[in-house]
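ARCHIVE CARD
Drawer: 12
Card no.: 0347
Subject: one protein chain, sequence and derived structure
Cross-reference: see card 0346
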Amino acid sequence: MKSKIAAAALLLLPFTGQYALAEEVAEEKSSFTISAELGMLFKTGNTKSGDIKAGLNIKHEAGRWLNSLAFNALAKKLETEDEFQSTDNKWDILGQSNYSLEEGGKNYLYGSAYYEQDKFSSFQYQTSASFGWGRHWWETETSSFFADIGPGVKYDVIRASDATDTKLAMEEYSETAAIVQAQALYTKQINDFVEFKQYFVAKQALESGKNSIYKSETSLTTKLMESLQFKFSFRVDYDTEVEQGFENTNTETSVTLVYNF
């Protein structure tokens, strides 16, 4: 009996070895990348103000899957008449999953979801979801470019400051629209220390008269240490349809420190 068990164990050994090897390879292909950024500006003297910008980016790669999550927050306070008042207060979160159609290939399927809340915009909040097809158009040692496109849906809750019933206001001023979403990211490693990125996304409403969204972010990152970077970014947000008294275009210029875990 013992000899039969030993023989069976010897026969199974190559398979268990292959399984362990496959498991080891799978572990090697799965990886997390996490970075956090923070920028602060405080002014005293004739005017007193405080600005804080924070961000968190998480990327996970496993086999053909690439998952990413990005969070950004901005808060500004300005002293007026011996008290501080908020002049900007917003945050957003973006999640996306890509599935490569072939091992090491260029084409992929994606699904993404977005949420934004801005206290001083024309909207109480905006959210959208999209899925479709994308492609890595090129990727070299120093640069890369990918773009994807697909159908989706967008839901906006328009701010109603004159409404007394919050629930009624949300129902009365909400807007749902079918969209086509297109986004692209270009990355260029200028040298060993400096990296340039250009991101653009368009959420085009299919129905005339409904709000479409366009966002662009340009950034330049300089490596200070192995895990610490200095980042300069310029962001433009454009909404085609806003309430009276609000601007269609909002811009944001920031300087932050980025730490890579």
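Annotation on reverse: The CA atoms of residues 156 and 164 lie 19 Å apart. Residues 32-260 form a domain with the Porin fold (CATH 2.40.160.40).
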